[in-house]
Amino acid sequence: MAWRALRRWAHRGLGLLGASLLFSSSFVASVVLHGDLPSTRRFVASSASRLLDDLLEGSVQIHRIDRLGFDGLDIHSVEARDPWGQRVLLASKIRVQLSLPQTVQRLLTGAGAIHVTIDEVHVEHAHVDLDLGPDGRHRIHAAFAPVPSPSPPSSSPTRLHIELPRILIDRAQARGTPVDGLPMHAGGRRLLGRLDLTEQAFALDIDPFSTRTQLLPPLNPQGTVEYHLHVAPGSGVQMRAAFNGKLAQMPASASMHLAGARLTARLDAPHIEPEDLHSLLPQLPLQESAAFHADINGTLPELGGELRLLVGTSAEAKVKIDTRMVDGIEADARWSVRHLDPRLFQPSAPATSLGGDGRVWLRYKGGELKADAQATTFPFLVGEQIVPSV
Question: pTM, whole model, 2 decimals?
Answer without folding.
Answer: 0.71
